Amino acid sequence: AQSVTQLDSQVPVFEEAPVELRCNYSSSVSVYLFWYVQYPNQGLQLLLKYLSGSTLVKGINGFEAEFNKSQTSFHLRKPSVHISDTAEYFCAVSDRLGTSGTYKYIFGTGTRLKVLA
Amino acid sequence: NAGVTQTPKFRVLKTGQSMTLLCAQDMNHEYMYWYRQDPGMGLRLIHYSVGEGTTAKGEVPDGYNVSRLKKQNFLLGLESAAPSQTSVYFCASSYFAGGNNEQFFGPGTRLTVL
Question: With an 8 Å Cβ cutoff, is B34 touching chain A?
Answer without folding.
Answer: no
